[in-house]
Specification:
Rossmann fold, 5-stranded parallel beta sheet, 607 residues, homodimer, magnesium (chains A, B), alpha/beta, 22 helices
């Protein structure tokens, strides 16, 4: 058995070298350090039907060090999931074998390549295994030692220890050498182990090139009553003298691949029979019934509260819905879901990167996560959102406490860039309702949306204007008030201000149309084009920085339609301070008075 | 002495309660848990001339748990830096005492309020003290226990341990209760200490309400030969029975402040003489001389390489310039600075949040940090950039490997949202040069820019078009080619494509103007307005998602000027894959052929 594993490891090295040589780029030396670790995993520990990647009972393998993709693909070849021809098409245009793994090649759950993300995602998969699917699959993660510098790894380690995820095994490939130099810990494998143990993990230190020792380490990890780490001392480029443990050999093909392959004993064509898991059916929460919440027109309700009420009701009807929060559930009101469905609520504490990654892991198993925190704090997880798009993940995110309208807490708590950020996520949907009935309908719509959807909610109460039976849709908008002199386009808190401005203008005989643009992406092009054509001009007003938000979304929509119009843009231009919401809206020039003043400029000049 | 400290602590509690009561909001209970810790710090350990906040020899105090601002401001009052009247103006519009601390109130170095950021910034201050200023000031940080869940705290802990920052003391206020529930570790102070020790820290566990014990703990921390943590077991709301260690009391004023103040023994008016540091003059690196680099027109040079060369030369002339990188310095080419000025280069390993925070700390001490990583990975530090703007920090950031033009590595490594993100940072400057001579001049300009400036560089080589003696300026652009039929507006790699497209069009008798819009924010409005007025329309082409980048910047500039024009926008609309740069530019529809095709539509329709 050990001989086969050594041969398999040699094949994985050779195939890593061949793939990178064919591509003319890639990371063979980072692959070679972990080849023995992965050979033993494939042959004897992993339980994964490569021919049935959607089998819910499968183990999961996450390559947190995604740049070791040649090794990952060499494993797929050994397991019969890709051909040698496909392997040698690595990194070519159209190949499923991209520079870093993505879900385009099954059974890859998530894209990696931004370091420090694989282990956090694995925590989500492991949580899903224990608390949602209730299946005994194990989640294996290959981590690099360089990425142990990323805080997100420690968010994951911390949470896994706290949650007692005994179905999670991290394999840490301590090859000592980063991209440009030695890592902080070098080969101090005991140092890693000590840190992991302090966080409640079971850690085993091992020579990562001793296949018998690795086998025993995995067995020990499998038997642990807590998350386990196999901390493996390895050599980068192991097996080929010219690159073995040499600096300056990161991320490039070998100079002489033929000689290297010869040194490794030549090409092999071993096939490995990866063990199959026992059959298993994932648990599903039985759907119940709950009427979607509605509110009477004229009520005053915060949209963040409506989010919580709507999410709790949605959870009753749809057993696939789960919720996560970053320890602010009484602010975002996801606490209402937590109270109604405690078994499907995940408290992620103040660790937004982990929260996002865990949601990615859960959706990879078919669950529908809704994750919430303050809109401002979603910026903490920006790289994870970016990578979630590469993972083709379906996620529903809610960000509360939008803009200066939150008042006294000051700018650190104000989301003023969230629309810009979420609009610039590939395939995203961006929603910013102005009232409770809109919010409730949009929460329901989000459950069925592909890609990453973002709902921005308000701290303070706003008046319900949308009748409960009026259809609210992704890509829609609402004409709050008719008028043909000019149009005011708003969303969220500024709808109230726009309506008040229209009232002021009406007293002066100016008829302003007010458009509630609750769907920022996709945006309601037809309604905007009509407003541009039928009025003297548009005022777009938002509680957000001028860049990348509603204003630029409106401009982009009109440009795309090739419709030209005067568009004036009111947004937050100076750094806000603490104060009452009304003071801050006025100071930013986005309140009713400011809107009315801008309207007078448009009308005065053109009318 | 202990009696005075106990009285001072009582005053800090009372004043915290008074400030929150006056404001009607705030976090008195989170302040009360740390009052004894801060009383002992003020009286006996901190060496900070509150009357001379700019004294370079001062100790630094960072409130990482920024929501304990009532306590922070109560300390300022006790130290004579604010009056009681100002204290009671907490959170009112115009007050320097905002909901969370900002540098508007000296001697506050940085804004806090997004948890997990104060300790990373403190690492930057401590690095500045040891390696740059070479002064014996100590950096004290008050941390909350909830924020220990943030990975960024562990990035800081890890680096401080590695770097041996014996001038750093973290005081961890373990009051057990977060916003909605108990923290993961509760009162397991030994658990915190064990973790910290595993990362190379000296940790002291203490009863945070025993002023004698706290005094001894600080003395022990001061004497440690490594970074030290005082892990203090405390009670949230300590001293007032109705809130003491009670859940549900986070972030709200006390119901009956008068009774609470009475329970604490009433108001006091103690003044504390905070110790002064010994006089000290910060070290400054002597300026040398180095000619700014230039390249000949027609040379092929990657702008990332030009960045490195220019930065190294800048460092020679300006001793205040320092550089940081996230372990990719041979990709960003900051390695050239590291080689030339090793004493001013900081390897931050793969920990982008810490890198950004450390740069914030260094600029707070007057240094001029340039920090670099892949453009895509700046998204990892997005919340830190956001908060740096609230801190009014002057930072220079470089992001390499822009867009699909990087090729085979695939989408995880491609910056496609960075322009959107950095444009939406308050007060930011966003630059994306197309050639080496532009890059070099912009690097020099960045050194003198206030606020956060971002330079986007390319992986591949581009042809030098800008003569070395041509002035390149923030807010400028360059007309690469004259023409009045239509205008193509590009930046970075798409300038090459735009010029090639113009060549194709010229062969068909179409004269396309090509504008190299290397300054994306601020943008050259005059040049864009002229292009809109003098041609049939604009094509904006960028290697970036359609949202928030150059295209929307151009639309916003034209709208602001109230100039109407046909604008067609070519950008990356589908998720890219691996491939050769040229294949990916073509697939995204942003190469010369695609630009020429779009031009024909504009000309065909309008001409």
């Amino acid at each position: 058995m050990s001989d086969f594993r050594r041969e398999l490891a040699a094949q994985l090295r050779v195939d890593s070298i061949r793939a990178a040589a064919a591509a003319g780029s890639g990371h063979p030396t980072s692959s070679m350090s972990a080849a023995d670790l992965m050979a033993v995993l494939l042959d004897g520990h992993l339980r994964l039907r490569y021919d049935r990647p959607d089998d819910p009972a499968n183990d999961h393998l996450v390559f947190s060090k995604g740049h070791a993709s040649p090794l990952y693909y060499a494993m797929l070849k050994a397991a019969g999931a890709v051909s040698d021809d496909e392997l040698l098409g690595f990194r070519t245009f159209g190949s499923r074998l991209e520079g870093h793994p993505t879900p385009r090649i099954p059974p890859t759950d998530v894209a990696t390549g931004s370091l420090g993300q694989g282990l956090p995602v694995a925590v989500g998969l492991a949580l899903a295994g224990k608390r949602l699917d209730r299946l005994p699959y194990r989640v294996w993660v290959l981590c690099g030692d360089s990425e142990m510098a990323e805080g997100s790894m420690w968010e994951a380690i911390q949470h896994a220890g706290w949650a007692g995820l005994d179905n999670l095994v991290a394999i840490i490939d301590v090859n000592r050498l980063g991209q440009t130099r030695e890592t902080m810990l070098g080969w101090d494998v005991d140092g890693y182990a000590e840190r992991l143990r302090a966080f409640g993990w079971h850690a085993v230190v091992v020579d990562g090139h001793d296949v018998e020792a690795v086998d025993r380490a995995y067995a020990e990890a499998e038997g642990a009553d807590r998350p386990a780490a196999v901390v493996a001392r390895t050599e980068k480029g192991h097996g080929v003298a010219v690159v073995e443990d040499k600096p300056g050999k990161h991320g490039k093909p070998l100079d002489d691949p033929r000689a290297a392959i010869a040194e490794l004993g030549g090409e092999r064509d071993l096939a490995v029979s990866v063990a199959a898991p026992a059959d298993g059916t994932p648990y599903r929460f039985p759907p119940g019934s709950a009427d979607p919440p509605t509110w009477r027109v004229g009520e005053e309700v915060a949209t963040r509260k409506a989010y919580g009420v709507a999410l709790a009701a949605l959870g009753a009807r749809d057993g696939a819905v789960v919720a996560l929060d970053g320890e602010v559930s009484n602010s975002t009101h996801s606490e209402l879901f937590a109270e109604a469905h405690p078994e499907r609520y995940f408290e992620m504490f103040i660790a937004e990167q982990l929260m996002l990654a865990a949601a990615v892991g859960m959706q990879a198993r078919g669950w529908k996560p809704f994750a919430s925190t303050f809109g401002a704090f979603w910026s903490r997880a920006a790289d994870f959102v970016r990578m979630a798009a590469v993972s083709r993940a379906d996620l529903r995110l809610c960000g509360s406490h939008a803009g200066v309208s939150i008042g006294e807490d000051g700018p650190s708590q104000m989301a003023l860039e969230d629309l810009a950020f979420f609009r610039a996520v590939h395939g995203s949907t961006v929603l910013h309702p102005s009232d409770a009935n809109q919010t409730a309908q949009l929460v329901r719509a989000m459950a069925e949306l592909p890609g990453i959807s973002y709902l921005r909610t308000l701290r303070g109460a706003t008046k319900v204007r949308t009748p409960a039976d009026e259809h609210v849709r992704v890509g829609g908008s609402r004409v709050v008030r008719k008028g043909d002199d000019l149009a005011i386009v708003a969303c969220g808190i500024t709808v109230d201000e726009a309506d008040a401005a229209a009232e002021l203008l009406a007293a002066q005989g100016v008829r302003a149309r007010v458009v509630d643009c609750y769907s920022v992406k996709p945006i309601d092009v037809d309604t905007l084009v009509a407003a541009a054509r039928e009025t003297a001009g548009l005022i777009v007003v938002e509680d957000h920085w001028p860049q990348g938000g509603l204003g630029e979304a409106v401009l982009a929509a009109l440009a795309e339609a090739d419709v030209q119009a005067t568009v004036r843009h009111l947004a937050v231009r100076d750094m806000p301070v603490s104060g009452k919401p009304a003071e801050l809206l006025a100071a930013a020039g986005i309140d009713a008075e400011a809107i009315a003043a801008a309207a007078r400029v448009i009308i005065g000049r053109t009318g």
